[in-house]
Amino acid sequence: CRNHQCNYSIDDYSAPLDCPQCGRALRPAPRYECSKCGKGTDLPVSTFRATMTSIDRDNSTVSYVTDSEGERRGTLHTLELIEAGAQFKVQVLLNPDAEEHAPLMARLLEQALSDEGVGAAKSRGLGKLKTTSPTVTRLSPEIIQKRSDELKDQVVMRLLSPLIVGRGEHLRIETLMEAARRAYSQVFRMGKPSLKEPRLAAERFRFTTYGGWSLKENRRRRLSQAIEPGSTYQLVNIDTELRGALTALEQCYAIGGYKTHGCGQILMK
Predict the structure, then answer these.
(1) Has residue 17 been placed in a domain?
(2) Sign of dihedral through CA atoms 252, 256, 260, 264?
(3) SS3 sequence, 107-173?
(4) How many domains does the chain have?
(5) What are the pLDDT digits (tens) for 107-134?
(6) Mean pLDDT score of the chain, rounded to an integer?
(7) Which of 3, 83, 143, 229 is most buried, by CB atoms within 10 Å?
(8) Taking a C-beta distance cutoff of 8 angstroms, is the pair 75, 56 a contact?
(9) pTM for this model (two decimals)
(10) Mind listing the pLDDT tens digit for each residue in 228-245?
(11) Domain that holds residue 130
């Protein structure tokens, strides 16, 4: 509930629009969920804003603009920053054909990435990080099968990252099934299986926009419509083979566009 004194909450796919206790509007469900305590939050890390002088890189001077009276004025630059001390768990998937290069990838993450940094304004000392204890694990079909055995005949699929969809579109079962078939084929090294289609019993989602900077084209990327992280879908009538495909999708693949940018990642519960 938006009324902090009321503090009413409900976790259901058919929740009312207004609070049944005080009548105030209900806030949408948090987008992220703690894997340890289960508590929801809209932002998994603490952020703040920093304002600094803008730099003209071509002339290596302060960046100026001219006002209506012809006077030159210095400009300021504001950045959204993640606070120091934030921790991230990162997994990098390698094709089996590149298995021999896995130790090199671990060294790159531990040494080169720490030296290079992440994000903007690295020349000003921002984006420094430390990678600790990278490990290399072979993701075998047996591991996928063990995870699959933990699922039941109905699952809740939660988005961990934005899911890129067409304008005005929702997540379609056909899109989910195609991604599951591809993931199954990659993990179990066989042709795409003929999977029994599940039934979408309930869904809870919000739309957002996804963009960014294209390094290839050196310009801002076109904005795409996406479904927000934290959106959930309840799937029922899940048979054994489909559980294996969905587990392969969870562990090794993704749904929708910009997969290499981390979009379309899911978690099954």
Answers:
(1) no
(2) negative
(3) HHHHHHHHHHCCCCCHHHCCCCCCCCCCCCCCCCHHHHHHHHCCCCCEEEEEECCCEECCCCCCCCH
(4) 3
(5) 888 888 888 888 878 877 888 988 888 8
(6) 85
(7) 229
(8) no
(9) 0.76
(10) 888 889 999 999 999 999
(11) 94-138
